[in-house]
Design brief:
single chain, mainly alpha, Arc Repressor Mutant, subunit A, 7 helices
């Protein structure tokens, strides 16, 4: 189990949107195939091997990615792995907040969450989780206790926030490169 810390976050000025996509692709390939190579990343992102090599070297310099000994397989470092889980968690929270709480279309929520995911600090991510959980779960608690909530104040989301004790539990549960629960795929 990876312990999250406030200091593990790479400042947003250092981690561009495209770098995030490289990290997420490495994570996805490693989880799906068991390995990630520059060739695989290039194919997945529809880019040249040269541009992927340049990006991977930048990620190595930031201690987010490394190569396995005796092979060219890429691995996320502990810092890189922490960043991926933080980014996936941010994307998930933003997607459901925008779709279920704000009411934008699923397509817009997906695009906007992708564009904002890497900009959210760990502190904001935890506070955002708590805020969304309080909104979604307090309605359930009030209704279970026999109280009535006016329809316009009911905040419901397909994301089961009430099943997580803490934001760290939620962050650690993020595995795939998608924000949608298995049931919605």
């Amino acid at each position: 189990m990876v312990k999250k810390s406030e200091t593990s976050h790479i400042p947003e000025a250092e981690l561009s949107h495209s770098m995030v996509h490289y990290l997420l692709t490495i994570h996805k390939l490693k989880e799906g195939k068991g390995y990630a190579r520059v060739t695989d990343i290039a194919k997945d992102l529809n880019l040249t091997k040269g541009s992927v090599s340049t990006a991977v070297n930048n990620l190595k310099k930031r201690n987010l990615v490394m190569e396995e000994e005796d092979s060219k397989f890429l691995l996320l470092t502990e810092t890189g792995h922490d960043e991926v889980h933080r980014i996936l968690s941010s994307r998930t929270l933003l997607f459901y907040f925008l779709r279920d709480f704000v009411g934008v279309s699923e397509e817009i929520a997906e695009v906007d969450a992708c564009q904002m995911e890497h900009l959210m600090s760990p502190e904001t991510g935890r506070k955002f989780f708590t805020f969304m959980k309080d909104l979604a779960c307090s309605c359930d608690r009030i209704e279970k206790d026999g109280g009535n909530i006016p329809e316009q104040f009911k905040f419901q989301t397909a994301l089961d926030l009430c099943s997580f004790s803490t934001a760290d539990d939620f962050f650690e549960s993020q595995e795939g490169d998608t924000h949608l629960p298995e049931a919605e795929k």
